[in-house]
Amino acid sequence: MDIFEAIDTRHTTRVYTNKKPTVDEVKRIINSARLAPSAVNSQNWKFIAVLSDDVKNRLADEILKKYDEFEKTMPSHLYDKIKGFKGHSTFFTKAPLLIVCVQTYAPKFLEGILEEFGMTEEEILDIRPDSQLLSMGGAVENMSLACHALGYSSCWMVAPVIAQEGMRRILNLKKPDQIVSLLAIGEEQTETKRSAKKDLDEVMEIIE
Predict the structure, then answer these.
(1) How far apart are the first and last CA of the chain?
(2) What is the pTM of this model?
(3) How confident is the model at residue 107 (pLDDT cuts 50, 70, 90)?
(4) What's the domain range around 33?
(5) CATH code of the domain in which 106 resides
């Protein structure tokens, strides 16, 4: 599968067979993340491959505990808007492979200079998006495409990260390392149609 075919046909899947990727396939997927571009080549990442059902279930329990906390402390009209995410946040327990994507500490270059110049964090973010988080996004996309090229499907997840503290404890992570997303991976159980995408003309402008 060439890169354009992978991009054109990749889609998100949430239901998988029990087939587990081999260790070599796991390494190949994560190696694709390692080779992604990063701001000032900071390589501000770590990727934890979880094949253990026990660990996946413990992570899911922490996420459900967080939703329970919200239910107890959040006004009902607000909780009603997010409770539907409980299932979307924990279905990864049925995925044969879960990759936890961790943004590790790396000193910021241009942002640090702008801070020293006297600009506030809000002013800096207005003119410069978080370059390290963008780097993480590139790494996760590389893995998503690598999964597809190997015959697996994936789902890029962010909602579960609300249980940051509990998940860090289970995975023996310490601040300032931060879990920024999860990638659920497995062989697609039934063919899933790709979600509708905007037409190219809606998102593209060419200036000649």
Answers:
(1) 33
(2) 0.92
(3) confident
(4) 3-190
(5) 3.40.109.10
